[in-house]
Amino acid sequence: MKNIDNHNEENKYLESLKSSLKGDQVFKVDDSYFNTLNENIQSRISYKSARTKVPFKFIWMSGAAMASVIALVVILWVPKTSQIKSTALQQPVKIDKTMKVEKPEIEISEVDTDDYKLGDEEYLLSELNVKPKTKKIDKKEINKLKTNEQSNVEVLSSIDEIEITKDDVLDYFEESLVQEEGIL
Amino acid sequence: MTKHIEDEELLNMLADSNSRQYAFSLMVNKYSKKLYLVIRRLVITHDDTDDVLQNTWLQVHRFLEGYRQNSSLYTWLYRIAVNESLAHLKKEKRKRIFSSKPFDEDLKNAISSGVDIDADVLEKKLQIAIISLPEKQRAVFQMRYFDEMPFQQISEIMGTSVGALKANYHYAAKKIEEYMLA
Lengths: 184, 182
Known about the structure:
Low-confidence stretches of chain B: none
Mean pLDDT of chain B: 89
Oligomer: heterodimer
Order of helices and strands of chain A: HHHHEHEHEEH
């Protein structure tokens, strides 16, 4: 291993270069910079000291504010929810009742599918031992919906009965064929 | 405020809470120029040097009570300045990790463009060669080559053994010489 203490001899070129270098004078800086530096540092120190004092104050203040808010919510909201008159709650809550009422089940007899052609409505209706029928929607159900939600529920649709159409029967039958017999 | 004051007197004033603020101001005036150059040689541009120098003094202010006088005041200040400079370089490098232009290229360009730099071709070439070194090696080289600091003092600043520093300097000098003579 080389003797690393002899670096000055090894790096003769660098050592000889030193005499022709300006050293730190290479980096120019105006003396006026140092006149304002102390001032800048002092103001940053003052700012930092002030800032480190804030958290203690802040924690107490924010803690107190949060406790007040929680207390207010508990007092006003929990016992009498319906009395809160917020603008948002006064807006009608729109519920599409048709989403909540199921259609009546379709009962079909056995059908000879050999002669059935996809979408052949006439054949289907003649073969199926079922006719389009309607189911009355229980008015109580709608009222229950209304009372279970907010008092200002607005039921959008005026439909009070659901009809089973020919399309429903056809869809149902074709779905059954796909699921049970793998037809289509 | 250009009053010359010895470190011992300065430290006594710093220990006294009544005179601490004034003493700190005196210390800033006494050592800022020296620390500026230590930092500037590492981070190159004036704006970055200004940031790092101010951060250095903030750190000094923060840890002043923890200064145990195991090393001279200047060595302690120097160490904080070098650490802040290295942290700055690391941060800037990390910022550019996905950039197509490496951070070192910016430093080289800053030297080549010559803004706030009064250097001839040779000096610029030397500075660019120094920038090509890894950061810590760069710091060691600067301390030894420009400041002619004893290895023992560099060891106190860098927290590295004297043997490792000698080897570090040797390899740094060799790389720079090769670059200069190429």
